[in-house]
Amino acid sequence: MAITRDQAEVIANRYNDRRITNKLKMEQRIQDVYSRVPEIASLDREISGLALSATRSALQGDLSKKERFQDDLAEISQRKKALLLANHYPADYLDEIFTCPDCKDTGYINGQPCHCFKEEVIKLLYSRSELQEILERENFDTFDYSLYSEDFIDEATGISAAENIETVIDHCHYFINHFDKTFDNLLFYGRAGTGKTFLINCIAKELIEKSYSVIYLSAVQLFDLMADYSFRRENHSVYSQISMDELIHCDLLIIDDLGTEMTNSFTDSALFDCLNERLVHHKSTIISTNLSLRELQERYEERIFSRAAGNYTPLKIFGDDIRINKNY
């Protein structure tokens, strides 16, 4: 479960908030019950006295009171439950409160992450990816193969759009299913409106739900963010929370619409540094662009194109404009 130190701290704080909230709720219940059923307050004082006496005796080497305390505690607990029921409270009303009874709000069971911890990771990753609402609409379950026609033939390959998209999606599933076993990067290219971003979102949803960290940025957002780092600019946008460390070390970085940014020496250098650092650390990247491979080669420095050509699997997407077909 790959999360950064900052993300782990966010989740730890959430668990701490849970425990504090539940403790306050427990204290309110106790005060309510004590005011309505004073006999229960007396029983709790009796338990405290017995526990103190048993502890003192144990420290002096006498364990007999500790053994008797367990029997007394069981008997008093039964009396408390009977009083609760008689006064229309659930029998477990004064039991300790946990949001997750399985791990008792620690996040771990026998040193392993609890199911609730994994759920918290997924929630956090969704919030950091800025994709949650989009991924509810755009995922493999909602993907429409019928938008890719058998009649649309790519002149370069002689393959239909329908046949091509099946091959592309097969590769997407392979990428997801072998994400932690093989290191791969994807380059989706083809003209606008062919579904590149939709496919990227499908991949992002699957990996986030496997608890991988995913950062999604348009090319413009990426270069704005890197300019903020480089020139120490203040930025109060939602993307300013992404650290350079996260940008380099997140499990998957998505750069959408490469080629829509203003190209200059800074963007060339920033793009090379970002892609190169992620390659060095074996962190996967997905790039989408409306440019052809030839246009990419002409637009960016040779060292950038060689990185993409040598270390990315190119996946061409073609067909009719989906947005027109769907009346977008």
Structure description:
There is one protein chain. By secondary structure, the chain is α/β, with parallel strands linked by helices. The chain has helices at residues 5-36, 38-59, 64-86, 115-129, 132-137, 161-177, 196-208, 219-231, 244-249, 265-280, 293-299, 302-311, 322-325; strands at 108-109, 112-113, 186-189, 214-218, 252-258, 284-289, 313-316. It has 13 helices and seven strands. It starts with a helix and ends with a helix. The model has no long low-confidence stretch (mean pLDDT 86).
Structural class: alpha/beta
What's the SSE pattern? HHHEEHHHEHEHHEHEHHEH
Please report the total strand number as a whole number: 7
Q: How many individual helices?
A: 13
The helix content, as a percent range, equals: 55-70%
**Radius of gyration over alpha carbons?**
29 Å
Contiguous runs where pLDDT drops below 50 for at least 5 residues: none
How far apart the termini lie comes to 38 Å
Strand content: 5-15%
Largest sheet: 5 strands, parallel
**Overall 3D shape:** elongated
Q: Residue-averaged pLDDT, rounded?
A: 86
The largest sheet has its strands arranged as 4-5-6-3-7
Which short descriptors sum up this protein?
328 residues; alpha/beta; five-stranded parallel beta sheet; two-stranded antiparallel sheet
Topology:
Blueprint lengths: L4 H32 L1 H22 L4 H23 L21 E2 L2 E2 L1 H15 L2 H6 L23 H17 L8 E4 L6 H13 L5 E5 H13 L12 H6 L2 E7 L6 H16 L3 E6 L3 H7 L2 H10 L1 E4 L5 H4 L3
Parallel strand pairs: 3-6, 3-7, 4-5, 5-6
Antiparallel strand pairs: 1-2
